[in-house]
Structure formats: structure tokens, C-alpha cells
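Sequence only, no structure available. Ideas?
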Amino acid sequence: MSTNDLTTTAREYREFQAQIKSLEEMADSLKQTMVAEMDARKVEELDAGEYTIRWTLYESSRLDSTRLKAERDDVYAAYSRKTTSTRFQVA
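Reply:
I predicted one. C-alpha cells follow.
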């Protein structure tokens, strides 16, 4: 692949990333509209024709690794593991 081809591919990639971001913002706006309607009606579930819209609260437990490392570094070290991954950027 030539430098010109790579430049074109990188440009297209960045343009698609910008479009994805724009679409995600639009989707979030639509979501907020539906959530606002549910809040106004004081419901967690709405029937919207062929769709059922739910906005529910749930709980989950997460390990506070920062606090564990600060308070019990020995335990943190014994149970933590390092991973290797890749990162792709077009800057």
C-alpha cells in the first residue's frame, strides 16, 4: 500500500469515526427524550407499539482496586495480574 493509499485510508477512517461519534450523540439525545418521558410519567416501563422501553435501576458490586492497593498492597499484588493488549490510533 502506498503512502497516498494509507493517507486516504486514514482519512476515511477518521471521517467514519467522526460519523460514529455524531450518531452516538444523536442516539443519546433520543434516549434522553425517552427517559424524560418515562420520568414525567413516573414509570420504569413503557409500551411503544412494537417496542417495550425500560429504564430500571440495578445494583452491582465492583472491587475498589485503588483502595485495596492502598490498604492491602500484599493482597492486591497476590491477586492482580498483568495483561498485554494493543491500541490502535490514527492521529
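The chain has one domain: 3-79.
Hope that gets you unstuck.
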